[in-house]
C-alpha cells in the first residue's frame, strides 16, 4: 500500500509539473520552462525511481526478518497482480491514446495544408496588390498625359480665338477712328461754312446798304453842288450866295453827321452779329460736347467689358511700345519746352519745326493737335503702368501656383513612401511567417530526437507550440488584411484630397480672375477719369485759344467765300466715299460673321469628337462642357459686340445721311435767303432812289422809316437766333434724358454684379461647410472602424483563452496516458522524417519567396528609373515649350512694332476726346460709388481667401502632426536598436532629410543580424531558458506600436 501511495504521489507530481512546463526534458526529468506562475512554491519534478527508506532501528531476530520478508513478498505478489490489472487497463488506454495520436497527426497535417494555402493566398494577394498598384499608376499617368494633351489643345484653340478676336478689335478700332475723323471734319467744315455764310451775308448786306447810302449822299451832294453853282452864276449878289452857301454847308454837315452815325450803328450791329455768332458757335459746341460725352460713356462701358473679357497672356507685348512711347514723350516734352521758350520770344527754329513735322506730320502752329498727341502719350503711359501692375500680379500668382504644385508633389511622394513601407512590411511579415514555420519544424525535430519513454510531455509541448504558431499565423493574416484595408483607405483619401485640392484651386482661381477683372476695370476707370480731367482742361484752354483765333479768322473768311462751292462739292464727294466705305464695312463684317459661324460649327464638331473620345471619363466630360460653355459665351459676347458695332455703324451712317440732308437743306435755305436778301436789297435801293429824287425837300419820316427797317431786320435776326437756341435746348434735353437712362442702366448693372458676387460668396461658404462636414464624417467613420477592430481583437483574445483551456484539458488527459506511448517511438521517428521532408520543402518555398522579393525590388528599381526618365522627358518638353514661347515672344515683338506704326497712324482719331463738359461730375460720382463697392468686395474677398488659407493650413498641420506623433511613439516604444533604426529611416523619408542629416542621425551604419522591426512582434525564444510571459508582453507592446502605425 505504501508503494501504491508513493506511485500515486509520483504521478500527481508529474502531472502538475507537466501542466507548468513548456516542454519535457527526459534527460534531466525537470521542467525546462514554466508557462505561468500559478503556483507559488518552486516544486521540482521527482525522479523516475523512488528511493527506499531504511529505518535506523535495532537489529531484529531472524524470525521477525523472515516474517517481514514474507509480508513484503505477499504484498509484492498482490502488488504484481494489481499491476497486471493496471497494465491491462493501460494497454486499453494505450490503444485509445494511439488512436487519438493518429487523429492529432491528421489534424497537424490538415493544419499544415491550411497554412500552406494561407501562405499561397498571401502571395497571391500581394501580387494582386502590386498589379493593382502598377495599374493605378499607369492609369494615373495615362490620365495625366490625356489631360495635358487636352490642355495643350485647349490652349491652342484659345490662342487662335484670341488672335482672331484681337484682329477684329483692331479693325473695329480703325473703323471707329476713321468714322470719328470724318464726322469731326464734316462737322467742323459745316460749322465753318455756315458761320462764314452767315457772317458774309451780314457783312455783304451792311456793305451794300452803306454803299447805296454813300452813293445816294454823293449824288445828292453833286446835285446840290450843281444847283449852287447855277445859283451863284445866276444871282449877282454876294450876300445871297453866302447865305445859300452857309445853308448848304449846314446841310452837308448834317448829312456827314448822319453818315457817321450810320457807320457807328453799322459797326455796332457788326459787333453784335459777331457776338451772336460766337454764342451760337459755343452753344453748338456745348451740344456736340454733350453728345460726344454720351458716346464716350457708351464706348467706356464697351471698353470695360472688352477689357474684362481679355486674358492675361500679354505679359511682354508692350515693352518696346512703352519704350518708344517714353522716348516720344520725352521728345514731346522737350519740344513743348522749346516751343514755349520760342513763343515767349516769338522766334522759331526751323530745325525744331522739321522735327515736329517728322514726328507728327504737324505744324507748330497747330498747338491743339500737339496737346492732343501729348495727352494720348500720357494715356499710354498710364496704360503701361497698369500693365506693369498686371505683370506683377500675374508673377505673384504664378509663384503661388508653383508652391501649391510643390506641396502636392510632396504629398504624392509621402504617399508613395507609405506605400513602399507597407510593401516592405508585408514582405517582412512573409519572411517572419516562414521563419516561424522553420522554427516550428526545428523545434519539432529537436524535441522528437530527445524523446524517450516520457515522450508524451514533448507531444504536449509541440501541440502548444503548434497552437501558438496558428495563433501567430491568424494574427499575421489579420494584420495583413488590416494593412490592405488601410492601404485602400489611404489611396481613397489621397484621391479625395486631390479632388478637394483641385476644387479649391479652381474656386480660388475664379475668385482671383474676378478680382483681377474688377481691378482692371477700376484702373481703366481711373485712367479714363484722369484723361477726362486733362482733356477738359485742354478743351478749356483750346476753347480760349479758339475764341481768340476766331476773331482773327473773321477777316480771312471773306477771302474764302469764293471757295465755298468747291468745298461743298468736296463734302458731297466725301459723303459718297463714306457711304461706300460704310457699305464695304458692312459687307466685311457680314463675311466675318459668316466665317465666325463656320468656325463655331467646326469647334462644335471638334467638341463632339472630344466628347465621344472621352466618354469613359466623366470628369473630362465636365471639363469639355465647361470649355464649350466658355467658348460659347465668348462667341456670344463677340456676336453681341459685332451686333453693337453694326448698330453703331448703321447709326453713324444714318446720322451722316441726316447730316448730308441737313446740309443740303441748309445750303438751299441759305441760297434762298440770299436770293430774298438780294431782292429785298434791290427793292430798298429802288425805294431809296425814289426817296432821293424827292430829297429836294426835307423829309421828316425818312429817319423813322430807316429805324423801323433796322428794327425789323434786328427782330428777324433775333427770331432766327431764338429758334436755333430752342433747337439746341431740345437736343440738350434729349441728351440729358439719354444720359439719365444710361446712368440708370449702369446702376442696374452694378446691382446685378453685386448680387452675383453675393451668390458666389454664399456658394463658397456652402462649399467650405460641406468640406468640413465631410472631414468630420470621415473622422467619425475612422473612430467607428477603430472601435470595431478593438471589439474584434477582444473577441479573438477570448477565443484564444478558450482554446488554451481546451488544450490544457487535453494535455492532462494525455499525461494520464503517458506511459502507454512508449511503444510509439518508432512511429514518431517516422513522423520526424516526414517533418524533415516538409522542412526541406519549406526551405524551397523560402528560397522562392526570396527570389520573388528580389524580382519585386528589381521591378521597383525599374519603376523608379522609368519615373526619372519621365521626369527628364518632361523637363525636355518644358524647355522646348520655353523655346517656343521665346520664338512667339519675338513674333509678338514684331507685331508690337507693327502695332506701333498703326498706333502712330491712329493717333489722329483721338480729337473727339477733347470735347467733354459737365457730364464729368456724374462720371466722378459713379466712379466714387464703384470705388467704394470695389473696396467692400476686396475686403470680402481678402477675408474669404484668409479663411481658405487657414482651413488648408489646419488640415495640413493635422495630417503632419498625426504622422510625426505616431512615428515618435513607435520610435520610443521600439524595444531594440534595429527597430528604432528602421523607424528613424521612415521619419527621414517623411521629413525629406538629405544625406548629411541622415549621417548626423546615424542612419548609414551597417546593421548586423536584424530582420526588421516587425520581427520583434513575432519574436521567439531561442533557447530553453526564455519565459513565455515575457514573450507575450513583448508581442503585446510591439502589437500596440504596429497597430498605431497601421492606423496612421
From TrEMBL:
GO cellular component, one term: Golgi apparatus
Parts forming coiled coils: 63-164, 211-306, 360-845, 882-954
Region (Disordered): 18-53
Highest taxon listed in the record's lineage: Eukaryota
Subcellular location: Golgi apparatus
Matching InterPro entries: GRIP_dom
An example Gene Ontology biological process: Golgi organization
Listed Low complexity bias regions: 25-36
A single GO molecular function term of this UniProt record: small GTPase binding
Residue ranges of every copy of the GRIP domain listed in the record: 954-1004
Keyword Coiled coil: yes
Keyword check for Cell membrane: no
Keywords from the named record: Coiled coil, Golgi apparatus, Receptor
PANTHER family: MYOSIN HEAVY CHAIN - RELATED, THYROID RECEPTOR-INTERACTING PROTEIN 11
Record-given protein name: Putative thyroid receptor-interacting protein 11
Amino acid at each position: 500500500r505504501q508503494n501504491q501511495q508513493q506511485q500515486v504521489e509520483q504521478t500527481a507530481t508529474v502531472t502538475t509539473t507537466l501542466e507548468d512546463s513548456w516542454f519535457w526534458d527526459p534527460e534531466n526529468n525537470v521542467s525546462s520552462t514554466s508557462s505561468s506562475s500559478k503556483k507559488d512554491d518552486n516544486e521540482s519534478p521527482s525522479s523516475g525511481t523512488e528511493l527506499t527508506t531504511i529505518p535506523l532501528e535495532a537489529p531484529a531476530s531472524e524470525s521477525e526478518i523472515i516474517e517481514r520478508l514474507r509480508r513484503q513478498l505477499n504484498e509484492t505478489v498482490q502488488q504484481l497482480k494489481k499491476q497486471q490489472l493496471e497494465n491491462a487497463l493501460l494497454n486499453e488506454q494505450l490503444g485509445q491514446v494511439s488512436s487519438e495520436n493518429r487523429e492529432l497527426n491528421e489534424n497537424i497535417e490538415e493544419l499544415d495544408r491550411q497554412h500552406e494555402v494561407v501562405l499561397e493566398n498571401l502571395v497571391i494577394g500581394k501580387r494582386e496588390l502590386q498589379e493593382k498598384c502598377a495599374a493605378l499608376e499607369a492609369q494615373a499617368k495615362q490620365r495625366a498625359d490625356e489631360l495635358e494633351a487636352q490642355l495643350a489643345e485647349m490652349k491652342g484653340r484659345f490662342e487662335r480665338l484670341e488672335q482672331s478676336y484681337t484682329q477684329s478689335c483692331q479693325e473695329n478700332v480703325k473703323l471707329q477712328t476713321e468714322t470719328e475723323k470724318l464726322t469731326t471734319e464734316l462737322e467742323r467744315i459745316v460749322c465753318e461754312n455756315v458761320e462764314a455764310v452767315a457772317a458774309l451775308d451780314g457783312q455783304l448786306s451792311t456793305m451794300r446798304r452803306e454803299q447805296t447810302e454813300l452813293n445816294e449822299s454823293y449824288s445828292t451832294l453833286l446835285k446840290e453842288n450843281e444847283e449852287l453853282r447855277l445859283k451863284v452864276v445866276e444871282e449877282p449878289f454876294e450876300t445871297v450866295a453866302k447865305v445859300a452857301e452857309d445853308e448848304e454847308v449846314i446841310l452837308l454837315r448834317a448829312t456827314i453827321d448822319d453818315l457817321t452815325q450810320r457807320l457807328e450803328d453799322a459797326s455796332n450791329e457788326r459787333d453784335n452779329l459777331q457776338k451772336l455768332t460766337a454764342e451760337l458757335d459755343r452753344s453748338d459746341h456745348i451740344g456736340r460736347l454733350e453728345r460726344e460725352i454720351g458716346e464716350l460713356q457708351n464706348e467706356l462701358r464697351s471698353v470695360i467689358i472688352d477689357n474684362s473679357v481679355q486674358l492675361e497672356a500679354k505679359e511682354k507685348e508692350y515693352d518696346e511700345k512703352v519704350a518708344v512711347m517714353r522716348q516720344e514723350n520725352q521728345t514731346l516734352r522737350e519740344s513743348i519746352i522749346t516751343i514755349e521758350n520760342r513763343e515767349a520770344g516769338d522766334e522759331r527754329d526751323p530745325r525744331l519745326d522739321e522735327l515736329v513735322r517728322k514726328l507728327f506730320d504737324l505744324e507748330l502752329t497747330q498747338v491743339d493737335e500737339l496737346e492732343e498727341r501729348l495727352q494720348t502719350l500720357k494715356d499710354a503711359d498710364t496704360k503701361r503702368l497698369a500693365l506693369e501692375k498686371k505683370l506683377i500680379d500675374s508673377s505673384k500668382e504664378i509663384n503661388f501656383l508653383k508652391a501649391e504644385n510643390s506641396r502636392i508633389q510632396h504629398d504624392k511622394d509621402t504617399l508613395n513612401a507609405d506605400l513602399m513601407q507597407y510593401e516592405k512590411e508585408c514582405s517582412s511579415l512573409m519572411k517572419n511567417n516562414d521563419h516561424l514555420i522553420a522554427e516550428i519544424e526545428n523545434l519539432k525535430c529537436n524535441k522528437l530526437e530527445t524523446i524517450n519513454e516520457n515522450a508524451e510531455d514533448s507531444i504536449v509541448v509541440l501541440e502548444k507550440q503548434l497552437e501558438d504558431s496558428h495563433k501567430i499565423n491568424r494574427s499575421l493574416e489579420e494584420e495583413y488584411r488590416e494593412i490592405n484595408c488601410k492601404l485602400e483607405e489611404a489611396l481613397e483619401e489621397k484621391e479625395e484630397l486631390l479632388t478637394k485640392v483641385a476644387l479649391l484651386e479652381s474656386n480660388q482661381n475664379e475668385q482671383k480672375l474676378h478680382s483681377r477683372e474688377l481691378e482692371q476695370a477700376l484702373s481703366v476707370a481711373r485712367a479714363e477719369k484722369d484723361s477726362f480731367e486733362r482733356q477738359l482742361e485742354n478743351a478749356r484752354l483750346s476753347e480760349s485759344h479758339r475764341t481768340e483765333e476766331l476773331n482773327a479768322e473773321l477777316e480771312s473768311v471773306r477771302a474764302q467765300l469764293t471757295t465755298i462751292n468747291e468745298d461743298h462739292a468736296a463734302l458731297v464727294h466725301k459723303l459718297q466715299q463714306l457711304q461706300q466705305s460704310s457699305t464695304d464695312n458692312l459687307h466685311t463684317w457680314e463675311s466675318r460673321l459668316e466665317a465666325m459661324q463656320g468656325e463655331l460649327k467646326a469647334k462644335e464638331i471638334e467638341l463632339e469628337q472630344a466628347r465621344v473620345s472621352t466618354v469613359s471619363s466623366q470628369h473630362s466630360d465636365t471639363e469639355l462642357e465647361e470649355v464649350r460653355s466658355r467658348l460659347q459665351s465668348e462667341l456670344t459676347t463677340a456676336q453681341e459686340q459685332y451686333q453693337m458695332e453694326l448698330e453703331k455703324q448703321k447709326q453713324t451712317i444714318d446720322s451722316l445721311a441726316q447730316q448730308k440732308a441737313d446740309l443740303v437743306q441748309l445750303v438751299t435755305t441759305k441760297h434762298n435767303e440770299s436770293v430774298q436778301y438780294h431782292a429785298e436789297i434791290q427793292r430798298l435801293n429802288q425805294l431809296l432812289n425814289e426817296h432821293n429824287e424827292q430829297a429836294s425837300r426835307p423829309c421828316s419820316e425818312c429817319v423813322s422809316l430807316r429805324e423801323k427797317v433796322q428794327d425789323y431786320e434786328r427782330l428777324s435776326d433775333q427770331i432766327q437766333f431764338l429758334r436755333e437756341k430752342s433747337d439746341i435746348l431740345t437736343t440738350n434735353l434729349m441728351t440729358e434724358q439719354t444720359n439719365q437712362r444710361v446712368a440708370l442702366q449702369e446702376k442696374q448693372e452694378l446691382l446685378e454684379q453685386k448680387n452675383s458676387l453675393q451668390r458666389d460668396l454664399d456658394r463658397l461658404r456652402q462649399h467650405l461647410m460641406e468640406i468640413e462636414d465631410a472631414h468630420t464624417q470621415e473622422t467619425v467613420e475612422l473612430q467607428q472602424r477603430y472601435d470595431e477592430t478593438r471589439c474584434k481583437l477582444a473577441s479573438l483574445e477570448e477565443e484564444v483563452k478558450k482554446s488554451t483551456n481546451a488544450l490544457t484539458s487535453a494535455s492532462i488527459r494525455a499525461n494520464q496516458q503517458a506511459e502507454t506511448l512508449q511503444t510509439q517511438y518508432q512511429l514518431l521517428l517516422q513522423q520526424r522524417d516526414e517533418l524533415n521532408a516538409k522542412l526541406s520543402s519549406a526551405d524551397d518555398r523560402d528560397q522562392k519567396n526570396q527570389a520573388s522579393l528580389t524580382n519585386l525590388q528589381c521591378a521597383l528599381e525599374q519603376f523608379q528609373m522609368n519615373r526619372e526618365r519621365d521626369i527628364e522627358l518632361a523637363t525636355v518638353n518644358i524647355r522646348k515649350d520655353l523655346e517656343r514661347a521665346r520664338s512667339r515672344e519675338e513674333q509678338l515683338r514684331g507685331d508690337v512694332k507693327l502695332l506701333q506704326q498703326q498706333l502712330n497712324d491712329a493717333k489722329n482719331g483721338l480729337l473727339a476726346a477733347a470735347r467733354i463738359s459737365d457730364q464729368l461730375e456724374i462720371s466722378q460720382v459713379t466712379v466714387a460709388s464703384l470705388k467704394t463697392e470695389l473696396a467692400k468686395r476686396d475686403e470680402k474677398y481678402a477675408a474669404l481667401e484668409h479663411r481658405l488659407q487657414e482651413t488648408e493650413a489646419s488640415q495640413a498641420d493635422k495630417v503632419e502632426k498625426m504622422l510625426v506623433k505616431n512615428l515618435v511613439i513607435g520610435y520610443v516604444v521600439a524595444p531594440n536598436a534595429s527597430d528604432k533604426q528602421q523607424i528613424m529611416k521612415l521619419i527621414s523619408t517623411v521629413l525629406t532629410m538629405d544625406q548629411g542629416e541622415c549621417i548626423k542621425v546615424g542612419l548609414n551604419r551597417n546593421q548586423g543580424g536584424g530582420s526588421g522591426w516587425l520581427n520583434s512582434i513575432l519574436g521567439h525564444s531561442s533557447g530553453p531558458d526564455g519565459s513565455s510571459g515575457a514573450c507575450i508582453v513583448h508581442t503585446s507592446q510591439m502589437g500596440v506600436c504596429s497597430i498605431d502605425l497601421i492606423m496612421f
